[in-house]
Amino acid sequence: MRDRRTRKGPIRFGELVRPPLNRRRWFQVGVGIVVLMAAAAVLLLAWIAYNRRWIHERQAMLTEPGVHQVRSGFKYAVDTPWSLRLFGEPSIEALSIPQSDCERARKLFPESMLQVRSGE
Fold first, then answer.
1. Of 94, 92, 90, 91, whose CA–CA distance to 117 is shortest?
2. Does residue 23 carry a pLDDT above 70?
3. Across the beta sheet with 94-98, what order do the strands follow?
4. pTM of the shown model
5. Using CA atoms, how far apart are residues 29 and 61, in angstroms rounded to an integer?
6. Residues 6+ apart with CB under 8 A from 46
7. Within a domain: residue 7?
8. Contact call for residues 114 and 97 (beta carbons, < 8 A)
9. How far is it, in rounded angstroms, from Cα 109 to Cα 120?
10. Is the separation of the CB atoms in 69 and 92 below 8 Å?
11. Domain around 62
12. Over 60: is that where the pLDDT of 45 sits?
């Protein structure tokens, strides 16, 4: 069908409703792309929340009675997991903990050496 600007004669009703053919829609996206972007945003926010909770639990454990940071004489580099380093969490070289907190400390501080005190 020809463009209505070049047509001679009366204009029909259907031609008034249609946009011109040479016009381009710029922000047209499909439903699949919207769902994909929403899923990516949800995954990113879930990953951030998981790491922030991990950092909060680490800091809470360091304030518990009976848990102490130990300065060892060794000079080796300990690296906090990269996902925690992105949020500025410092690495802990060594911890002195009661035996009851051993498993929890291994999960929260994978980079640290643990001194487990028995009898507490």
1. 94
2. no
3. 68-69, 94-98, 113-117
4. 0.68
5. 47
6. none
7. no
8. yes
9. 20
10. yes
11. 29-117
12. yes
Domain assignment present for residue 17? The answer is no
Q: Does residue 2 belong to any structural domain of this protein?
A: no
Band of residue 79 on the pLDDT scale cut at 50, 70, 90? confident
> Hunting for tokens 């507490």 — which residue is that?
120
Hey, what amino acid is at 54?
A: W
Taking the CA atoms of residue 12, residue 13, residue 15 and residue 17 in that order, the dihedral angle to the nearest 10 degrees is 170
Do residues 66 and 120 make contact, with C-beta atoms less than 8 angstroms apart? Answer: yes
Instruction: Establish if 80 belongs to a structural domain.
Output: yes
Q: What is the DSSP string of 24-66?
A: --SS---HHHHHHHHHHHHHHHHHHHHHHHHHHHHHHHHTSTT
Q: Give the number of other Cβ atoms within 10 Å of residue 89's Cβ.
A: 17
pLDDT band at 47 (very low <50, low <70, confident <90, very high): very high
- Number of structural domains (the chain) is 1
